[in-house]
Design brief:
This protein has helices at 3-18, 25-32, 36-42, 46-71, 75-92, 94-107, 110-135, 143-163, 170-187, 195-200, 212-225, 229-243, 249-259, 266-276. It is an all-alpha fold. Helix 1 crosses helix 2 (25-32) and helix 5 packs across helix 9. The protein is globular, with a radius of gyration of 20 Å. The mean pLDDT is 85.
């Protein structure tokens, strides 16, 4: 595990227990067992670390739902699996999300706002891809209303995990929201949200996709950091595939599947998927 990953995991644990403001860089470095110098080689400040933590969560959330949309074969259960995967992520990171929402007024800066809007746009793209797959031309006039409703479902129901310590049935929640989304998609006729209005909510341009060279560099970096043999070998083979393609799409997809469950490889899989179209 790289020093940056050690810092992130140590900071997550401390922030969840005592909050952003009450946690010092010294406490983070002590908990991580590293020097302050090593911290500042990875992050210029605690604020930059907080942006890195949001990156860490949003990369996993985005890559998880993207994987479901691209790889779940049964259209009749895709909405259910989409919601279940999303809320599993909320549940897993509830402690950190609670602290972030409570203290964001003290920590939000322009870098963080831009970062959140970037991921918001990626989630819009993934959700729109899913809706087109399920409903085709039947939602041409209502698709932006549907995306807004789905994001509203996320926002309202994620608070159940963040603010209330209750045993929640993820299966039932996902089934309920999948049913409601399907009803809206099939029977809604009136449309308020135009594409122009929808796009106006996030005016920053999308970041460009990473280049092949950047992906190769990222795969090399991950291969150096990770010890698990299957994950390491899969990273190496995918790097070679980018340099000189020799494997079929099915093999590439299998190699990417080997990386999916590793917490530090989900974003690599997402970027690879966008690059190679798998």
């Amino acid at each position: 595990m790289s020093k940056k990953q050690v810092i992130i995991e140590s900071a997550l644990e401390l922030f969840s227990k005592q909050g952003f403001e009450a946690t010092s860089v010294q406490q983070i470095t002590d908990h991580a067992g590293i020097s302050k110098g090593a911290f500042y080689l990875s992050f210029k400040s605690k604020d930059e670390l907080i942006v890195g933590l949001i990156d860490h969560f949003m990369m996993q959330f985005t890559s998880d739902i993207d994987w479901v949309v691209k790889n779940h074969q049964n259209n009749s259960t895709l909405l259910f699996q989409f919601y279940k995967t999303a809320f599993q992520s909320f549940q897993q990171h509830a402690d950190f999300a609670k602290i972030f929402i409570k203290e964001q007024s003290q920590t939000l800066n322009q870098d963080l706002i831009t970062k959140l809007r970037y991921y918001d746009k990626l989630i819009n793209v993934i959700t729109l891809e899913m809706l087109h797959r399920l409903y085709g031309d039947g939602i041409m006039t209502t698709k932006y209303d549907l995306i807004t409703c789905i994001k509203g479902f996320f926002d309202v129901h994620s608070h159940l995990f963040i603010f209330f310590d209750l045993p929640l049935d993820l299966e039932k929640l996902a089934a309920s929201l999948a049913e409601k989304t399907d009803l809206l998609a099939r029977h809604s006729r009136e449309s308020f949200m135009t594409e122009e209005l929808f796009q106006s909510f996030s005016v920053e341009p999308m970041e460009e996709d990473v280049t092949k060279e950047q992906l190769i560099e990222l795969l090399e970096q991950k291969a150096e950091e990770i010890a698990e043999p299957i994950v390491k070998e899969s990273l190496e083979l995918l790097k070679l595939q980018l340099i000189e393609p020799v494997y079929s799409p099915a093999i590439v997809k299998g190699l990417m599947g080997n990386l999916r469950e590793h917490p530090h490889c989900k974003w690599v899989v997402y970027l690879l998927g966008r690059h190679v179209g798998v």
